[in-house]
Design a protein that fits this description.
The complex is a heterodimer of chains A (358) and B (462). Chain A is α+β, with helices and mostly antiparallel strands. Chain A contains 8 helices and 20 strands. In chain A, a hairpin with a 2-residue loop joins strand 4 and strand 5. Classes of the chains: A alpha+beta (358), B mainly alpha (462). At the A-B interface, strand 6 and helix 4 of A face helix 16 and helix 17 of B.
Chain lengths: 358, 462
């Protein structure tokens, strides 16, 4: 079986905060980005998986074996904390080689192994330097190399790109991609930054208040969020209140006086819908408008312009207007809207673990 | 060129006028034969400085210097033969005069007014010191005037100059000691100020150094007070050598015992939270709180030959405490424990727990994380604690005296010596003991710099 890590209704309490229950599974060479706001329990999840927080029995499985009661050193999980936490009394090379004596690397192959990992992470240029002479990005890469050197079964990265300048960020992102390509270590990458989650182009799990709200490929999450929180947090479209009506077996959502098609049956007659900017466009003068609204604002995004349209007294919706095609309206002007795609009903409360998979 | 002149008080001219008045008075006294002819000569020298001080022409420095020098040389040619016993001395006096003239012009023209005030005030002080207080010290006056000329262009240098001057006049019996301490204090203050320290903090440093004086002065006096020959004699004394050897042996053994038990204790106290932890931390301090004599009597009460536990240990292990090396070690361990334990606890506290977590995440167990991460990173603190404990053990007197007055350790030997022969005769022995302790202490302190610290665990920049 290729499942490397599985948590089974994992629950952890730290003071007032309760994490979980969290059930997630990671296959070999999976790369999961765990995205959520500060304080949602991302680090707590990583630390309990790594073994630094006590958890209940039969909650964490590594390669099918229950490790929930094992101390960290017996789990072989590479946990890279947000701060590099390099050993200051050792050189970079000694830091990377620190765990090799505990790892399944033969004694005579250790030097070659360190060299390979160092080259992969781009730290081979300063192997003999002391940690306090490294920049933030360099230290972070050394810490990653140190964890990778022991051939962990799972790699847990806590905010690996945070607090780096843009160049160091780009370098670190390339290094992460290269390492994953080369070694294929199953990885959980924690971040609070949705741009970062987007840039990793992988599977994403969105966390909120100790729970996972939704997991799926990053494109799906951005285009089709299921939970209210996910839609709001990712911010890739508008979340507006709607009433749902059924006409001839077809569900529609009423936003203000506009009637918009929905992608799936709603759960209740009142709720919210997620409207992607591409779902609507401004109607040309000679076109039949399917909805009417008033322009509330314009935002120039460089490559395109966004027009915020208020649909008859309701929350403004955002419509993408492409510059070369559209006549740009002025704020206050009445415009017609054409519907290009359906809007998506959202789940109001946190979804059950079964509904988490997109 | 010349520094921008602010309105200063008192005005330069007034200071120059004071100088002129003094010179005039000296001249009158000299003509009446009341003072030595060298004073007359200084009169000429200072007259030129007065000229500069009162009639200063900012742009005519060369003229002033040249004119003043010519004036001096002419005066010297006329009166020099009357002032000095031979032509060599006379020439030297001329040189000094020219130097003082030159420096006076430079200071007056190029530096802020306070330099000129300091220069004039120093002149008066030197005059008062060597001509008025110490009579017939005119040659010394000339000599120190030369020093003044050399130092006049830096107020800091002038401060060092005055420490030197006062050390060798007022503090004559302790000249070198005073010089050492004075230079130490001045250097500390000046470098603190130079490194951008706030004025308040620098003043506080000065206040605090007063305390240091009381510590340092007796030590420096005793150490510098003995000549090498008497020290050598003491060192050849078999009793002294055996006392030192006993001290080294017992203090080292005590420190080893303290490290063996104290480091695990410190690690546990630093890493664990348990009921009674605060109480335990207080108990560690107990030996600092109680008088040494009380500690000694308490130890005798428990471990003495007549006591239950003392007898038990003697029968069971064959170890007797009173009057043996074991007894000395027991007393030393008792009094030195806090020094090691507190340093080691602080050292372990300074090692972030996240580093141990990192080690354990890499596969190291609890022992591996301790031995390969926490212990090396705490080693400097532990080592410094061990040095303090060693010094404390080696210097312990009260507790040792009660439990094991013999074999004699160095402090006990010094006490005996003082009781039998008095303060003067025990000087060389005390000097040897002090030198030995200080040498060990500083050697160990400085070697600690080779050990690692926790700095830089998170990279230079976040």
């Amino acid at each position: 079986m290729s499942e490397v890590l599985r948590t089974d209704r994992l629950t952890v309490s730290v003071g007032e905060f309760t994490l979980g229950p969290i059930s997630l599974a990671l296959e070999r060479s999976d790369y999961l980005v765990l995205l959520g706001p500060s304080g949602c329990g991302k680090t707590t999840l990583l630390r309990s998986v790594a073994g630094f927080l006590p958890v209940g029995p039969r909650t964490i499985f590594l390669e099918g074996r229950d490790v929930s009661q094992d101390p960290p050193q017996r789990r072989r999980i590479g946990y890279v904390a947000q701060h590099a936490d390099l050993f200051p009394h050792l050189t970079v090379a000694e830091n990377i080689a620190f765990g090799l004596r505990y790892a399944p690397v033969p004694r005579d192959k250790r030097a070659a192994h360190v060299a390979r990992i160092a080259r992969l992470m781009g730290v081979d240029g300063f192997l003999s330097r002391a940690p306090d002479t490294l920049s933030g990005g360099e230290a972070r890469r050394v810490a990653l190399a140190r964890s990778l050197a022991v051939r962990p079964r799972v790699l847990l990265l806590d905010e690996p790109l945070s607090m780096l300048d843009p160049n160091a960020r780009a370098g670190m992102r390339r290094a992460l991609a290269a390492v994953h390509e080369e070694l294929g270590t199953a990885t959980i990458h924690v971040t609070h930054d949705r741009e970062e989650a987007w840039s990793m182009r992988s599977r994403v799990a969105v966390m909120h208040a100790g729970r996972i709200e939704q997991t799926g490929p990053v494109e799906v999450l951005f285009r089709r969020p299921r939970a209210m929180f996910v839609a709001r947090f990712l911010g890739a479209g508008d979340v507006v209140p709607a009433r749902f009506e059924q006409q001839a077996g077809q569900w529609t959502a009423r936003v203000g006086r506009a009637r918009l098609p929905v992608s799936e049956p709603p759960r209740a007659v009142r709720g919210h819908v997620f409207v992607r900017p591409g779902a609507l466009r401004l109607a040309a003068d000679d076109e039949r408008a399917e909805a009417q609204g008033t322009v509330r604002g314009l935002a120039d995004r460089g490559r395109w312009r966004e027009v915020s349209v208020e649909v008859e007294g309701e929350t403004p919706l955002t419509v993408h207007a492409l510059e070369e095609e559209d006549r740009l309206p002025r704020p206050g002007e009445a415009v017609g809207l054409r519907v290009l795609g359906p809007v998506h009903p959202l789940i109001e409360e946190s979804p059950s673990p079964e509904e988490v998979q997109a | 060129m010349s520094a921008p002149q602010r309105a200063t008080w008192p005005p330069k001219a007034v200071v120059g006028g004071l100088l002129a008045l003094h010179v005039f008075g000296v001249a009158v006294a000299s003509v009446r034969g009341a003072i030595s002819p060298i004073e007359l000569f200084q009169l000429l020298l200072l007259a030129s400085n007065v000229l500069i001080g009162v009639l200063i022409l900012r742009r005519r420095v060369d003229l002033l210097l040249g004119g003043g020098a010519l004036f001096l040389i002419a005066a010297h040619a006329m009166f020099g033969h009357r002032l000095a016993p031979d032509s060599l001395t006379s020439g030297a006096i001329l040189m000094v005069s020219l130097l003082v003239l030159y420096v006076g012009v430079k200071v007056n023209v190029h530096l802020p007014a306070r330099y000129w005030y300091a220069f004039v005030a120093s002149y008066f002080a030197l005059y008062g010191l060597f001509v008025v207080v110490l009579e017939n010290a005119e040659p010394l006056f000339l000599l120190f005037l030369m020093g003044l000329a050399a130092c006049a262009r830096s107020l800091r240098l002038l401060a060092y100059f005055w420490v030197l001057t006062l050390s060798f006049t007022f503090c004559q019996p302790y000249a070198w000691e005073a010089l050492f301490i004075g230079f130490f204090v001045l250097t500390a203050l000046f470098t603190a100020r130079g490194a951008g320290g706030a004025r308040t903090a620098v003043v506080f440093l000065g206040v605090g150094l007063v305390l240091l004086f009381f510590v340092l002065f007796p030590v420096v006096v005793v150490v510098l007070g003995e000549d090498l020959h008497s020290l050598e004699l003491v060192l050849r004394d078999a009793r002294v050598r055996s006392a030192i050897w006993t001290t080294v042996k017992t203090a080292t053994l005590s420190t080893a015992l303290l490290v063996a038990f104290g480091v695990p204790l410190a690690y546990a106290v630093s890493r664990l939270r348990f009921r009674g932890r605060t109480l335990l931390l207080s108990f560690i301090d107990v030996p600092i709180v109680i008088p040494q004599t009380a500690a000694g009597i308490a130890l005798v009460t428990v471990f003495g030959r007549q006591q239950f536990l003392g007898q038990l240990i003697e029968r069971g292990l064959g170890i007797r405490f009173d009057g043996t090396l074991w007894g000395i070690c027991l007393a030393q361990v008792f009094v030195a424990l806090p020094f090691l334990a507190k340093s080691a606890i602080a050292a372990f506290d300074a090692v972030p727990l996240t580093l141990e977590h990192a080690a354990r995440g890499l596969g190291a167990g609890g022992w591996g994380a301790f031995a390969r991460v926490s212990l090396p990173l705490a080693s400097r603190g532990i080592f410094l604690g061990a040095v303090l404990a060693w010094a404390r053990a080696a210097g312990e007197f009260g507790a040792v005296l009660f439990l094991a007055p013999s074999p004699k350790t160095a402090p006990v030997a010094a006490y005996d010596r003082f009781n039998s022969v008095g303060v003067v005769e025990s000087g060389p022995l005390v000097a040897v003991l002090l030198l030995f302790s200080l040498a060990m202490f500083f050697l160990l302190q400085f070697s600690a710099r080779a050990l690692p610290t926790v700095h830089g665990a998170r990279g230079a920049a976040a």
